[in-house]
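Input.
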Amino acid sequence: MKVESVSDRLSWYVVYTKPKQEERAVFNLRGWNVEVFAPRLKERKRNEFTGKVTYHVKPMFPRYVFARFKVNELLHKVNFTRGVQNVISFNNGPTPVSDEIIELIQMQQGESGLIILGEELQTGDRVKITEGPLKDFTGVFEESTSDSSRVSIMLTAVSYQTRVVVEREMVRKAS
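Output.
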């Protein structure tokens, strides 16, 4: 019976990339047939002068990606891949990342492949609008729209009820 060492096993590792070269590192690591996971998320920004909202996709962990490989076979190649600074190591060797941690992050991915952060809203939750012309109005969460960046809310204001659709980022659970 042979005992398999950590260096013989296919494991996930954290790869530290050169500044703003996450995509380059991912592309080049895939060239070595290395499985790579580079979680990204959509960031909402409002122009302070025009008030216009724009969205930008950015890395969830700037300068870090996850790569799955056998250390004894590919560590040297991974370390010298264009876009890679080094593989994160402790105690004189690369430190594997638990498969459960990678799976936990992957479970947060939406259909678009982007990570979805924030509290989960359920039908019937009381919510408060945090910005925009309806700021501080409260209502009841009904559903997410088909593009998942907007939500439908039933607002009640002075004996008047109406349904509104607003950006998901503008809504928080009411306490």
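The chain has two domains: 6-106, 126-173.
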